[in-house]
Amino acid sequence: MAVANVRQLMTISEELRSAWETHEKVDHVNLNLQIMARATRGYLLQRHPTSLLDFNEAKSDYMTVVSELDAQITNEEQRQNLAQLTTLINQFITLHQGMIDLVNQNQTAAGVQIWRESNGRALTGEIGSLLTDMEDLEGEIVARQETIQAAALWRLQLTLLIAATLSLLLSALIGTLVIIKASRIMDQAAGNIVSSASEIATSIEQQERSSSQQAASVSETSTTMDELGASSRQSAEQAEAAAAGAQQVLALAEGGTRAVERSLDGMGDLREKVDAIADQILRLSEQTSQIGGISSLVSDLANQTNMLALNAAVEAVRAGEHGKGFAVVSGEIRKLADQSKKSAEKINALVADIQTAINSTVMVTDEGTKTVEEGVRIAEETADAFAGVAEAVNNVVLNSQQISLNVKQQAVAIQQVVSAMNSLNTGAQETAHGITQIKVGTHQLNESALQLKVAI
Fold this sequence. Notes:
With 456 residues, this protein is mainly α. The protein has a domain at 2-233 and 420-455. Helix content is 96%, strand content 0%. It contains seven helices and no strands. It has helices at 2-46, 49-72, 76-104, 108-117, 120-170, 172-319, 324-455. It is rod-shaped.
């Protein structure tokens, strides 16, 4: 019976050690998931090769640990949990690998959109809940094994006491042989218990350090996310300020466009007036030409009148005394003809001057018309330029507003991540506290085993 109790105690110690290793590997799976999620977010934000390397290493480590868990876990409920966990984590890896592939295909915006709209958070929460259930169940298994181990130790001690009493009653020799053999077996069992307890204590210390490091990492990540959230809020404010400035520039550009339109209207009126002036000048030129023609006709009439007066004077001379009166009239007519000729010549000279001035005015008017047309063309180009500026500024306004909206959404998402990190930090601290308590219990078990070995 003592030998059976010792073997049972050794079996229980081995199962207890296996349970602790299972608990540690479940925590390792949780840590790998956090690394993959953090690496994916980092790769989406900066596309840094280190993030991709961390993701691949964590995925490879996860595959190894899950394979070990599958070979190690014997509890049927835990095996069902492991199968469900494997399915969920494969979905998790597929989702995050898809986002990384989009970034590698230069489709970062699509990857970020999937990260925002996917059920990644719900999937992570479901995985975390399942991991917690597995850890709790493994803790219950450890507690049961420790209880069974304590009961086995008690039965072993009781069996030894009974065996010793029976040995004394039967015979000193048989009792001595039995005690010696039992003591050797018990000494070996106690040594195995001490060794197992030491290994468990070492594993617990490693798990405690891992939990402490995990808590510190989560705390540091929370601080970083807080800083990133503040930076996002500042970027949103700057984007809003840029949008407001672009709105002002857009208003100025629209004012410039309206001013150019008014200039175009003024240029159109000016062109119409210049065209009217040109028409008046042309009519004036025609009338001046007519005056010149009339003046030439008057000059011709004066010449003819002068010739007639000259002929009349000749005839008056021939008439003698009878032609004197006619000679006087003829002389006056010649004077009038000369004056008419001089007046006609002056008129011709004035008409020539007027025609020259009109020609100059026509040239100046043509130049003015060309200048007005050039001004209209420049004003139209300026209007087109203002329209282009207005369109560009409007695009800047729209882009700034979109950037502001995206940054605000990013700030909300970061705040959600910070809340999740705080929850993880609290859980890690509670896990570290629980491991410390288990460590104390394991040391007490080790001391009991040493006391049993000394007693043997």
